[in-house]
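Aim 2 progress update. The chain analyzed this quarter is reproduced below.
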Amino acid sequence: MRIEGATALVTGANRGLGAAFASTLLARGAKTVYAGGRRPGEITGPGLVPVELDITDPGQVAAAAEQCQDVDLLVNNAAYGTLSPFIGSSSTDEARREMETNYFGTLNMCRAFAPLLGGGALVNMLSIVSFFSFPSMGSFCATKSALWSLTNGVRMELRAQGTLVVGVHSGFIDTRLAEGFDVPKHAPAEVAGQVLDAIEAGREEVLADERTRQIKASLPDDLELIYPDLERQWAGS
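Predicted structure tokens:
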């Protein structure tokens, strides 16, 4: 599909990558960009249409689908993440909140908007950690792995109606989720641009950087090629 003339909805559009998606869509000629967020008053970008949207609230998701009947591109970007190991956390509360947002919230959006997206596109923001688990953020990694499986399943379910389903895997992006990590980070607009290019080219997957491409290529031998280095990092932390 073409971005020019499209009508898009971006979740988590009040800051970071979501805001970059929204502004890049407008810059590339999208007709309408609905900008979803839990606090729509914070969404002030010129040309955007704010939409109150907490993706964990089925009522708000249904209301957004009713309001945005003309959407032909859905960008599922909203996410929640913590530094929570599986065993070392004091409770499972954060793990449940991460799964409710990143997996079930995205599933809510896919289900509500699927009927509107025939001939259009659906984007799920995944991560390099869809492909592996690191203990210091283990519960977050688990949500992205689950979301990768969801994305592959939704793609098969929606293929007959002509919906392009794009899974996006990337290393660190310079957003609030990546604060505190002293590592190279992508500019949000760079990733947004890659994703919109993929949509226009009809590509079903974006591997946004060389490290992500290397990790995916290593999956058949992950216990030998990926996890020994991660275990050394964990032991030294």
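The chain has one domain: 7-210. The first strand starts at residue 7 and ends at 10. These observations will guide the mutagenesis experiments scheduled for the next reporting period.
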